[in-house]
Design brief:
- The termini are far apart.
- By secondary structure, this protein is mainly α.
- The protein has eight helices and no strands.
Length: 193
């Protein structure tokens, strides 16, 4: 999937789809209630999580859908390349960083996809812990994010493929799965009950 040199130019549906992935991943609730680190890595990981859900949904479809998925993927990495350059990463270092991002994407996809397929909230929670919550484990938030991702997979599975390819992605409302106030700092997380 990575970096086709002579691929066709993306169309509006691909741009809209990628924009919808990014918009969903940037919702503040993920960085507050779900406690995803509001860092470059945290934001990258949430885009990856949403992209994996979509790509898993579109896997196994016909050639046109495969080309569509590839185009969205290419847009993602073109955006990462542009973002690195805007942040001042030198031209000689950008390809190495993008390559590392590509490897991270594939590693996360390999960890998340089987869990999405098997509706495995525990396995997905563990994978999210290893990839997103590396500095400070958040078991309740990890499980909530896993439940959200599984709900997102089901929501996209219920949509028609042609509709998805127009960029209309019916993501679930993340606040509906967010950990409650009992997980706020200073609370006992229900351990004394």
């Amino acid at each position: 999937m990575l970096f086709g040199l002579f691929r066709r130019r993306p169309r509006d549906g691909e741009y809209k789809t990628y924009s919808e992935i990014v918009a969903q991943a940037r919702q503040p609730v993920f960085y507050t209630d779900y406690r995803v680190p509001d860092t470059l890595d945290g934001r990258f990981d949430l885009i990856v999580a949403h992209a994996v859900v979509l790509f898993q949904r579109l896997a196994g479809e016909d050639k046109a859908v495969s080309e569509f998925s590839q185009s969205v993927f290419d847009l993602f990495f073109h955006d990462m390349d542009a973002s690195l350059r805007e942040m001042g990463v030198t031209d000689t270092r950008v390809p190495k960083k993008v390559k590392a991002m590509g490897e991270a994407f594939y590693g996360r996809a390999d960890a998340y996809a089987p869990c999405l397929t098997n509706d495995d909230v525990v396995g997905l929670s563990d994978a999210l812990s290893r990839n997103i919550y590396t500095e400070a484990p958040e078991p309740i938030a990890e499980r909530a994010l896993a439940q959200y991702m599984l709900a997102a997979a089901k929501a996209l599975a219920a949509q028609d493929t042609a509709e998805l390819m127009t960029g209309k992605l019916d993501w679930p409302e993340p606040a509906a799965f967010a950990p409650g106030e009992e997980t706020a700092p200073g609370r006992n997380d229900g351990q004394d009950q």
